[in-house]
Design goal:
By secondary structure, this protein is of the alpha+beta class. It contains six helices and eight strands; from the N terminus they run ααββαββαββααββ. The strands form two sheets. A four-stranded antiparallel sheet has the order 2-1-3-8, with helices on one face. Helix 1 packs parallel to helix 3. The protein is globular and about 50 Å long.
């Protein structure tokens, strides 16, 4: 998706909001007439949907690689963020008016080749890079937006290791597989 596609961003936010409302209120899943969508929304795309209330995280679920049409990906992740984020209880209908929906459209992840922990720190670009850490079958990611809450590169990696279920300093002790990606983020009420 290109930065100037205002219509697509607006449509994705509307689809995410309607999917969220339908699932929380117990209505049937949203039916989308694909003839009404642009080619960009029908192409495979990877997204994360983040729900916040007063700036506090309320749910966030997504995919790192495209496997379905972008509009379907956003609808699916809006529902999952509301009902299936293990960190939170399911969203209640009374919370809906206070929830802000944010969609992040991801670029394809690229392997980051680094020599040692210091080299890894030097290569990371806070605020720009989404980061995926892998250790065998375990993996975890933070979107680039997380840098605003954890601006220290070392702390960012520490928290990401902990999210993966590993000791926070694992990135210093062992060479992990690291991938980076970018996002185009847009949210309700934004001038995107």
């Amino acid at each position: 998706m290109q930065k100037h596609l205002f219509f697509e961003k607006k449509m994705l936010l509307q689809l995410a909001r309607q999917s969220l409302e339908n699932c929380v209120k117990g209505f049937d899943p949203l039916h989308v007439d694909e003839k009404m969508l642009t080619p960009a929304l029908l192409q495979k795309g990877a997204s994360f949907v983040t729900l916040t209330i007063s700036g506090q995280l309320r749910g966030c679920i997504g995919s790192l690689e495209p496997y379905q049409a972008l509009y379907q990906d956003v609808c699916e992740h809006a529902i999952a963020a509301a009902l299936h984020d293990y960190r939170f209880s399911p969203v209640r209908p009374s919370e809906l008016p206070r929830i802000l929906v944010e969609v992040s459209y991801l670029t394809l992840p690229k392997t980051l080749i680094y020599q040692d922990p210091q080299d890894l720190l030097n290569l990371l670009q806070p605020g720009q890079d989404g980061v995926i850490l892998r250790d065998g079958s375990r993996r975890a990611t933070f979107l680039p937006q997380v840098w605003s809450q954890i601006p220290s590169k070392e702390e960012f990696l520490d928290h990401l290791c902990a999210k993966m279920g590993e000791p926070s300093k694992l990135w210093k002790l062992k060479h992990l597989d690291v991938e980076i990606y970018g996002v185009e983020e847009f949210h309700e009420g934004g001038e995107n």
